[in-house]
Automatic annotation (TrEMBL):
Gene3D superfamilies in the record: Skp domain (3.30.910.20)
Signal peptide per UniProt: 1-21
Record protein name field: Periplasmic chaperone for outer membrane proteins Skp
Pfam families: OmpH
Species this chain originates from: Dyadobacter endophyticus
Taxonomy, superkingdom: Bacteria
Lineage: Bacteria, Pseudomonadati, Bacteroidota, Cytophagia, Cytophagales
Cross-referenced SUPFAM superfamilies: OmpH-like
Record keywords: Coiled coil, Signal
Coiled coil: 91-118
Family: Belongs to the Skp family.
Comp. bias intervals (Low complexity): 187-214
Region (Disordered): 186-214
InterPro entries per UniProt: Chaperone_Skp (IPR005632), Skp_dom_sf (IPR024930)
Amino acid sequence: MKQKLMAILVVMTIITTPLLAQTTPAGGPTKIGYTNVDYIIGKLPEAKVMQNQLEVTKAQLDKAIGETYKEAQEKYEAYQKNGPSMTDVIRADKEKELQNLSTRIEEMRNNAQTSLQTKQQQLLEPILTKVNNAIQEVGKESGFLFILNMDAGQGTTPIILFAASEDNNATNLILRKLGVDPDKVEAAAPAATTPAAKPASAPATTPATAPKKK
Protein backbone atom coordinates (compact mmCIF):
# COMPACT_ATOMS: atom_id res chain seq x y z
CA MET A 1 0.00 0.00 0.00
CA LYS A 2 2.80 2.42 0.91
CA GLN A 3 4.61 1.87 -2.37
CA LYS A 4 1.42 2.36 -4.36
CA LEU A 5 0.65 5.50 -2.40
CA MET A 6 4.09 6.97 -2.90
CA ALA A 7 3.98 6.09 -6.59
CA ILE A 8 0.80 8.10 -6.99
CA LEU A 9 1.95 10.92 -4.72
CA VAL A 10 4.26 12.60 -7.12
CA VAL A 11 3.82 16.20 -6.06
CA MET A 12 3.49 17.91 -9.42
CA THR A 13 2.91 21.19 -7.61
CA ILE A 14 5.20 20.16 -4.75
CA ILE A 15 5.92 22.70 -2.09
CA THR A 16 9.46 23.66 -1.59
CA THR A 17 8.38 24.75 1.83
CA PRO A 18 8.27 28.55 2.11
CA LEU A 19 10.71 30.21 4.42
CA LEU A 20 8.89 31.20 7.55
CA ALA A 21 9.67 34.71 8.60
CA GLN A 22 10.09 34.71 12.37
CA THR A 23 11.65 37.68 14.09
CA THR A 24 14.44 36.77 16.49
CA PRO A 25 16.12 39.04 19.01
CA ALA A 26 19.26 40.76 17.81
CA GLY A 27 22.17 38.44 18.39
CA GLY A 28 19.83 35.62 19.40
CA PRO A 29 20.12 32.06 18.18
CA THR A 30 18.88 31.13 14.74
CA LYS A 31 16.54 28.17 14.91
CA ILE A 32 16.24 26.38 11.56
CA GLY A 33 13.84 23.46 11.27
CA TYR A 34 13.40 20.85 8.60
CA THR A 35 10.81 18.32 7.51
CA ASN A 36 9.78 16.12 4.59
CA VAL A 37 6.60 17.26 2.89
CA ASP A 38 6.10 14.06 0.90
CA TYR A 39 6.39 11.97 4.06
CA ILE A 40 3.82 14.12 5.85
CA ILE A 41 1.37 13.94 2.94
CA GLY A 42 1.72 10.17 2.88
CA LYS A 43 0.55 9.95 6.51
CA LEU A 44 -2.66 11.92 6.03
CA PRO A 45 -6.05 10.18 5.66
CA GLU A 46 -6.76 12.51 2.75
CA ALA A 47 -3.84 11.01 0.87
CA LYS A 48 -5.36 7.53 1.08
CA VAL A 49 -8.69 8.91 -0.16
CA MET A 50 -6.87 10.59 -3.03
CA GLN A 51 -5.11 7.34 -3.90
CA ASN A 52 -8.38 5.46 -4.04
CA GLN A 53 -10.01 8.09 -6.25
CA LEU A 54 -7.06 8.11 -8.64
CA GLU A 55 -7.05 4.33 -8.86
CA VAL A 56 -10.78 4.30 -9.68
CA THR A 57 -10.30 6.94 -12.35
CA LYS A 58 -7.34 5.11 -13.82
CA ALA A 59 -9.26 1.83 -13.93
CA GLN A 60 -12.13 3.52 -15.77
CA LEU A 61 -9.78 5.05 -18.32
CA ASP A 62 -7.93 1.78 -18.80
CA LYS A 63 -11.20 -0.06 -19.37
CA ALA A 64 -12.37 2.37 -22.05
CA ILE A 65 -9.03 2.19 -23.86
CA GLY A 66 -8.95 -1.59 -23.57
CA GLU A 67 -12.42 -1.96 -25.06
CA THR A 68 -11.52 0.21 -28.03
CA TYR A 69 -8.28 -1.67 -28.51
CA LYS A 70 -10.14 -5.00 -28.47
CA GLU A 71 -12.57 -3.71 -31.08
CA ALA A 72 -9.72 -2.60 -33.32
CA GLN A 73 -7.89 -5.89 -32.90
CA GLU A 74 -10.96 -7.93 -33.81
CA LYS A 75 -11.62 -5.83 -36.90
CA TYR A 76 -8.02 -6.08 -37.99
CA GLU A 77 -8.07 -9.87 -37.66
CA ALA A 78 -11.27 -9.98 -39.71
CA TYR A 79 -9.62 -7.76 -42.31
CA GLN A 80 -6.64 -10.09 -42.55
CA LYS A 81 -8.92 -13.12 -42.91
CA ASN A 82 -11.38 -11.69 -45.44
CA GLY A 83 -9.22 -9.08 -47.19
CA PRO A 84 -8.32 -11.18 -50.25
CA SER A 85 -11.99 -11.71 -51.09
CA MET A 86 -13.03 -8.08 -50.62
CA THR A 87 -13.74 -5.73 -53.46
CA ASP A 88 -11.48 -2.72 -53.78
CA VAL A 89 -14.18 -0.41 -52.44
CA ILE A 90 -14.88 -2.54 -49.34
CA ARG A 91 -11.17 -3.09 -48.70
CA ALA A 92 -10.50 0.64 -48.84
CA ASP A 93 -13.40 1.26 -46.44
CA LYS A 94 -12.07 -1.33 -43.95
CA GLU A 95 -8.57 0.12 -44.11
CA LYS A 96 -9.92 3.58 -43.41
CA GLU A 97 -11.93 2.22 -40.45
CA LEU A 98 -8.83 0.55 -39.00
CA GLN A 99 -6.78 3.70 -39.40
CA ASN A 100 -9.47 5.74 -37.65
CA LEU A 101 -9.54 3.27 -34.76
CA SER A 102 -5.77 3.42 -34.43
CA THR A 103 -5.93 7.22 -34.30
CA ARG A 104 -8.75 7.07 -31.77
CA ILE A 105 -6.77 4.76 -29.46
CA GLU A 106 -3.78 7.11 -29.53
CA GLU A 107 -6.01 10.08 -28.74
CA MET A 108 -7.64 8.19 -25.87
CA ARG A 109 -4.22 7.39 -24.41
CA ASN A 110 -3.14 11.03 -24.54
CA ASN A 111 -6.46 12.26 -23.13
CA ALA A 112 -6.35 9.66 -20.35
CA GLN A 113 -2.90 10.78 -19.25
CA THR A 114 -3.95 14.42 -19.21
CA SER A 115 -7.19 13.63 -17.40
CA LEU A 116 -5.45 11.63 -14.69
CA GLN A 117 -2.79 14.27 -14.13
CA THR A 118 -5.45 17.00 -13.93
CA LYS A 119 -7.47 15.05 -11.39
CA GLN A 120 -4.34 14.37 -9.36
CA GLN A 121 -3.52 18.08 -9.19
CA GLN A 122 -7.10 18.94 -8.22
CA LEU A 123 -7.11 16.39 -5.40
CA LEU A 124 -3.63 17.29 -4.24
CA GLU A 125 -4.07 21.05 -4.08
CA PRO A 126 -6.18 21.19 -0.89
CA ILE A 127 -3.85 18.68 0.78
CA LEU A 128 -0.82 20.81 -0.03
CA THR A 129 -2.62 23.89 1.26
CA LYS A 130 -3.49 22.14 4.52
CA VAL A 131 0.09 20.92 5.01
CA ASN A 132 1.53 24.33 4.22
CA ASN A 133 -0.80 26.02 6.72
CA ALA A 134 0.32 23.56 9.40
CA ILE A 135 3.98 24.26 8.59
CA GLN A 136 3.35 28.00 8.91
CA GLU A 137 1.69 27.55 12.30
CA VAL A 138 4.38 25.22 13.65
CA GLY A 139 7.10 27.59 12.45
CA LYS A 140 5.61 30.53 14.29
CA GLU A 141 4.65 28.64 17.45
CA SER A 142 8.03 26.92 17.77
CA GLY A 143 10.15 29.97 16.96
CA PHE A 144 11.77 28.65 13.80
CA LEU A 145 13.42 31.20 11.57
CA PHE A 146 13.11 28.79 8.64
CA ILE A 147 11.63 25.38 7.99
CA LEU A 148 13.27 23.65 5.04
CA ASN A 149 11.97 20.75 2.99
CA MET A 150 14.36 17.77 3.09
CA ASP A 151 13.22 16.47 -0.30
CA ALA A 152 13.73 18.79 -3.26
CA GLY A 153 11.84 16.47 -5.61
CA GLN A 154 12.40 13.45 -7.77
CA GLY A 155 15.89 13.07 -9.18
CA THR A 156 17.33 15.96 -7.18
CA THR A 157 19.78 16.22 -4.30
CA PRO A 158 18.05 16.64 -0.92
CA ILE A 159 18.27 20.14 0.51
CA ILE A 160 19.29 18.83 3.95
CA LEU A 161 22.42 16.70 3.60
CA PHE A 162 23.37 16.53 7.27
CA ALA A 163 21.63 17.08 10.59
CA ALA A 164 23.57 16.69 13.83
CA SER A 165 20.43 15.78 15.78
CA GLU A 166 16.68 15.46 15.49
CA ASP A 167 16.10 18.49 17.71
CA ASN A 168 15.09 20.70 14.80
CA ASN A 169 13.13 18.06 12.91
CA ALA A 170 9.68 19.65 12.79
CA THR A 171 7.97 16.66 11.19
CA ASN A 172 6.28 15.32 14.32
CA LEU A 173 5.12 18.80 15.33
CA ILE A 174 3.56 19.26 11.90
CA LEU A 175 1.91 15.85 12.00
CA ARG A 176 0.36 16.64 15.37
CA LYS A 177 -0.84 19.98 14.03
CA LEU A 178 -2.56 18.02 11.24
CA GLY A 179 -4.19 15.67 13.73
CA VAL A 180 -1.90 12.69 13.05
CA ASP A 181 -0.27 10.91 15.99
CA PRO A 182 3.40 10.47 15.04
CA ASP A 183 3.73 7.68 17.62
CA LYS A 184 1.42 5.58 15.45
CA VAL A 185 3.46 6.01 12.29
CA GLU A 186 7.12 5.49 11.49
CA ALA A 187 9.68 7.78 13.07
CA ALA A 188 10.20 11.13 11.40
CA ALA A 189 11.23 10.22 7.90
CA PRO A 190 14.58 10.72 6.21
CA ALA A 191 14.63 12.43 2.88
CA ALA A 192 13.02 10.28 0.23
CA THR A 193 12.63 10.49 -3.50
CA THR A 194 9.10 9.98 -4.73
CA PRO A 195 8.76 8.02 -7.98
CA ALA A 196 6.77 9.54 -10.76
CA ALA A 197 3.06 8.88 -10.91
CA LYS A 198 1.96 6.54 -13.63
CA PRO A 199 -0.69 7.85 -16.01
CA ALA A 200 -3.53 5.69 -17.18
CA SER A 201 -2.08 2.83 -19.13
CA ALA A 202 -3.22 1.23 -22.32
CA PRO A 203 -2.38 -2.02 -24.07
CA ALA A 204 1.23 -1.97 -25.13
CA THR A 205 0.49 -2.45 -28.79
CA THR A 206 -2.11 -1.26 -31.24
CA PRO A 207 -3.36 -3.22 -34.23
CA ALA A 208 -0.88 -3.27 -37.03
CA THR A 209 -1.58 -0.76 -39.72
CA ALA A 210 -3.64 -2.31 -42.44
CA PRO A 211 -1.69 -3.06 -45.61
CA LYS A 212 -2.21 -0.59 -48.36
CA LYS A 213 -3.74 -1.56 -51.65
CA LYS A 214 -1.29 -2.23 -54.40
